[in-house]
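User: Hey, quick favor. My workstation is busy. Could you predict this chain's structure for me?
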Amino acid sequence: MIAILGGSGLDRWPQLGTLTPQSIDTPYGEPAAPLLCGQIDGVAVCFLPRHGAGHSLPPHRINYRANLWALKQAGARAVIAVATVGSIPAHMPPGALVLPDQIVDYTHGRQASYFDGADGRVEHIEFTEPYDPDLRTALLAAASGAGIALIDGATYAATQGPRLETRAEIDRLERDGCHIVGMTGMPEAALARELALPYACLAVVANRAAGRGASSLLAEIEQHLGAGIAAAQRLLIAALPGLADTA
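Assistant: No problem, here it is.
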């Protein structure tokens, strides 16, 4: 089973058809929404909108631990996380799809590990490469085969939110070597690693980051998000057979 975590603009997956949502209890509370698990073109898929129904949860209030745990319990063998981001360099315009290969965590105060010492266990995961290389290869191959443009390689800056960043903050992120900026990349990627769930991020550029493009970032997001999400969905459907073989 391939799990798809939906981000802003992707809170439902019509291709799964009419399904009965599955509620899964976890030791960490309830996930953001009931899971929708079915099949697309013969591949088992489980979909979870990380922000909840109707985008009701801001990034810092998402129960990332419950979300990943529920997907694992449902039988997920791999996770593709769709994320809406802003872009810093000019070669990543609004509407582009980006496959990041690194991440820098600027978040704070989030429940960031299953091994927080409460049960007397501590575990240090290897996180040099935060995204699964086999999943990334499968996504790149599917994009090439389907004629969908996909930018290979970027460093994702995970910021706290829910506000957008200042121009000075984006300048800092650029100095740090970041290319795209979003609010949900961490601790999600690390939690998946703790659960031994292969994880990759498919980023949808909705806007140029603060000070890099339009004066109204929210208007730019509204203009470009729908088309970017539609392209991400087309790519994921094309990629499902290869992702299933990888998982």
